[in-house]
Write a structure and sequence with these properties.
2 domains, alpha+beta, RdgB/HAM1, Maf protein, 25% strand, 4-stranded mixed β-sheet, elongated, ITPase-like_fam, metal ion binding, 8 helices
């Protein structure tokens, strides 16, 4: 055995592993032993053979001297367990396996070789799995309902961990703009996600975010971006907010929350919805040069710092959007498995 301990843990999955065993998956009480045995039979093959390559005249075996030893404490996602074991194999055996999801199945590839297909109970839709002959990529994709490349980049980092490729609206220039006519954050996020999903047939992620000020009854809320009118700018919105709170002098009465709702939609399936709030207060004057929107006026919790004084890394780790994305990553695999 090596001294290194591997671990993966989220709200619904918890695995602990070490290298040097004999390819074993063992589960705590309540985890189906037969299912783990099936997974283990599939995964153990990855430690024993290398595939043929075009520049090799014949196949050759690379019998591994060691294997994995994994204890499954909690499991809701076969994908997460397969990815955990494959990551161990890659690190310990100098392999380059990649794990992706396709139509509810989990696939493992290396270079141009398909090595493993793990099917959920009941199988998957054959047409959805094999796709169109014109497809040039293998694996599921998610379309982010934005044209913002910066936002797309952040989501791409997150979904890569789930073996899912990310696109955005710049890849679909002919799609119409979806009017945000809802009166709640969830209604607007659903409108974008479900409308674009129905138009494209793809899995789509959309978000709606805004600032809620308690003294204003939750305004500007879903109208945050256009609080000061149809031609609103960040500067005019901040000026209007200060004007609306001009007679509210007590710090505790200027409480507010940034809010984000994320919705993932897929054709014919129930949408996944997560949301998060970032509590704070509205300052008497703006401060800081970072961020955007109401960040210069938003004081973070009891810290006394304005959101616009935080670095991007600091903000992403504690903000409403950061918290919502964390919730999404914890719930996504379970949601996807239920929808298969």
């Amino acid at each position: 055995m090596t001294d290194k301990i591997y671990e993966y843990k989220d709200a619904d999955n918890w695995f602990i592993g070490e290298w040097g065993g004999a390819n074993v998956l063992r589960g705590f009480e309540g985890i189906c032993a037969n299912h783990l045995a099936r997974l283990n039979s599939e995964l153990s093959k990855l430690t024993k053979h290398k595939p043929c390559h075009k520049d090799h005249g014949k196949c050759h075996s690379d019998q591994a001297k060691n294997g994995y030893n994994v204890t499954v404490i909690k499991k809701a996602s076969d994908f997460q367990l397969i990815r955990f074991v494959v990551d161990m194999i890659n690190q310990e055996s100098d392999r380059q396996f990649e794990v992706a999801q396709r139509a509810g199945a989990v696939v493992v590839t290396e270079a141009d070789h398909l090595l493993l297909v793990h099917l959920p109970k009941g199988g998957v839709d054959a047409k959805a799995f094999f796709g169109n002959a014109s497809e040039t990529t293998f694996g599921d994709t998610i379309l982010i309902a934005t044209r913002n490349e910066g936002k797309t980049k952040e989501f791409r980092k997150m979904f890569e961990k789930l073996g899912i490729k990310v696109e955005n609206l710049n890849d679909y220039p002919d799609l119409p703009e979806v009017a945000e006519t809802g009166t709640t954050f969830e209604e607007n996020a659903r409108l974008k996600a479900e409308t674009i999903s129905n138009l494209t047939g793809k899995m789509v992620l959309a978000d709606d975010s805004g600032l809620k000020v308690d003294a204003l009854g939750g305004l500007p809320g879903v109208w945050s971006a256009r609080f000061s009118g149809p031609d609103a700018t960040d500067e005019s919105n901040n000026a209007k907010l200060l004007h609306e709170l001009a007679m509210v002098f007590d710090h505790k009465d200027r409480s507010a929350q940034f809010h984000t709702t994320l919705v993932v939609a897929a054709p014919g399936k129930e949408s996944l919805v997560v949301e998060a709030d970032w509590p704070g207060y509205i300052a008497m004057e703006p401060k800081g040069d970072n961020g955007f929107g109401y960040d210069p006026l938003f004081m973070v919790g009891e810290t006394g710092r304005h959101a616009a004084e935080l670095t991007a890394e600091e903000k992403n780790s504690i903000s409403h959007r950061g918290l919502a994305v964390k919730k999404l990553m914890e719930a996504f695999s379970v949601w996807q498995a239920k929808q298969s």
